[in-house]
Write the structure tokens for this entry.
Amino acid sequence: MTTAKRLPVDSITLDAELQPRDVIDSALVAEYAGALNEGATFPPISVFRTPEGELLLADGYHRLSAHTEAGRDHIDADVRKGGRVDALRYSLCANATHGSRRSPGDIKRSYAIAVANEIVAAGDSRAVAATLQCSRRWAERLTQPAREEAREARDTAILAAKAKGESNRAIARRLDIDEGTVRGAEKTNNAQIPQQLSVTTRTYEGPMPRMMTEPPKSMKPFQIPRFETRKVADLINMLNYFANAPDPSALPHQNLKEFAGHIRDAKAWLTNALVLVDED
């Protein structure tokens, strides 16, 4: 219920978080004050009367400032009953349909206030769009960092559980997600590890010399992985992964332990563009 009142300007409480504007536009305040002095009238400001009797300004900061600048002692107000949370919810979307158009800074500030006061979850784009009355595109942009952080935390939990031998079904049930999400996290993690790309093997009779750029005449044959790509960078990335592996013998290749021992010398050789691939 709303009641029209004429309130003393100094009876109204200003709460910084109930002002979603990024800045108060002093030029606009001066314009409003000048208009008041010339006899103009403005729509009532919006105030919430708390159970304790406090009058919280929820909308109309520029109008109130203009009244103060123009030397007015009273201002017309629409007074609603409600607490601070009610006033917050009202203020966050008050400028969506009237007043000067909200700037990107205004919308970002409103989002920060809403999250800080637990009115919306940081990653809930639907709730943000509804609470701020902003476009879905804006809501997606605002919530993207929080959603990415939540996704990383979820995937870390999934991979930790998989490392302990927990089944996809058990992980999905415990984390309240579907099994497809569990499989997706595994797939994304696997795609980031060069060793887990499609690999076949071939026997190479050539050299793997120590700190040499020209191969010697002979060397004991050993198995090396052949990637589908022919890019040196991919092979170097693979070598770095094997070099950092705590236990190369645990990796799915019969001669990786021997292979890992030649990695440092092989890198210098491979960097010189002696890329080992099939002729096809």
Remarks:
- Residues 195-205, 207-231, 272-280 have pLDDT under 50 and may be disordered.
- The first helix runs from residue 26 to 37.
- The first strand starts at residue 2 and ends at 8.
- DSSP finds eleven helices and six strands in the chain.
